[in-house]
Design brief:
heterodimer; A: mainly alpha; 3 helical TM bundles of succinate and fumarate reductases; 9 helices; 75% helix; globular; B: alpha+beta; Ubiquitin-like (UB roll); Fumarate Reductase Iron-sulfur Protein, Chain B, domain 2; 2 domains; 5-stranded mixed sheet; two-stranded antiparallel sheet; 11% strand
Amino acid sequence: MNRFLASSLGKKAVMALTGLFLISFLVVHCAINSLIFYNDGGVNFNAGAEFMGTNPIIRTMEIVLFIGILLHIYQALILTLNNNKARPVKYTLNAASANSKWYSRSMGLLGTLILMFLIIHLKQFWVISRFTDEITGGHTTLFAKMQEAFSSPWVVVVYLFAMISLGYHLLHGFRSAFQTLGLNNKKYTPFIQAIGTGFSVIVPFIFAMMPVSIHMGWVK
Amino acid sequence: MNLTLKIWRQKNAKEAGNLVTYQVKDISEDMSFLEMFDVLNEQLVHKGEEPIAFDHDCREGICGMCSMFINGRAHGPAQGTTTCQLHMRKFKDGDTIVVEPWRARAFPVVKDLIVDRSAFDRVISSGGFISVNTGNAKDANNIPVPKQDADNAFAAAACIGCGACVAACKNSSAMLFVSAKVSQLALLPQGAIERESRVLNMVKQMDEEGFGNCTNTYACEAECPKEISVENIARMNREYLRANLK
């Protein structure tokens, strides 16, 4: 096991597994947050948020989630440093766009943008719900906090930009995870790639619609 | 056709190199890229200058020696082609062509466009073989091999070890090369006996040589002159996981 984790292939497997785990989190997060689209003044959404904040299984998974995020970042840093060392003298002219997609070569940049967004995002909602009594004490609701945050067009722009970054990160990450885990097959790979493309477009789009809908007043 | 060439000149592994501009005139579009280099070197020799050092051997696309990074592409703009099989008709009169050596820590520059690819040889010596005496050529179908496996093994065995995959990869990863060699043997009954030790040793050696890690951009597959599939990389990932679990 130590040999596996120390090898380049093992490190990539950690990236793939944590990546897929984070993808599964996106499904849950997106589903719960979509409760705002009931357009019922956030009643269903607040109930969902309360469940997620109090259920012991979810709270445990929250810790696992943070471990997953940190592992994904840590392993990415190690791999990137290693990759930079592998080519000390760069090409004067490198027509990389002729042989690969820009987003597949920019996973580090896209990931950094997502991390920066994550810090803002956690500070805006997660810190308030977990470490202050603003919501647990009944002074306000998470839905009201969303309305407050998304009243600013700048916040909406930051969220939109972050969701575009997430979309491209997933577009490469989803299919790449399967390849790294050795799951490449003439019959199933086109199917996995189609699911990955669909996921990378639909999930960030639904997320992006949340700040937009609240800002525009479509969801009240 | 007349061309402007910007070619990487480097005395040896220790000294820093730089791009030097040369002009060539009346190049036939039917020449191969290496023949154009021969013309240029003739000119340089006549002028009493040091000719450009470049690797080449068979000049028929099977030896994997002609490593040149042309206009930002491994082996130039043509798909599935080695530098020796790249013809000048792929370029236009008046073009400026930039030629650099493969760039990777594991492939140090020996001189000008020649790099030392013995890292690949060490990967092969670590496990890219079978340890039984296979004797004389056997009758066909003596050992039954499923057609699908035979085809996949044959496709992987087409790898000529030229290093274009490493050169094109943003991480200088050797995964396509190593996985082609692992696959070629793992798919056949003769190679099955050393299946686990082979992949463990070859990956260990690959990592020790200082190649980067695969990020699945598939630039390797796009630039491979033998069009080796990235399915081999997935197969090696499987083989490696399997060998570690055993």
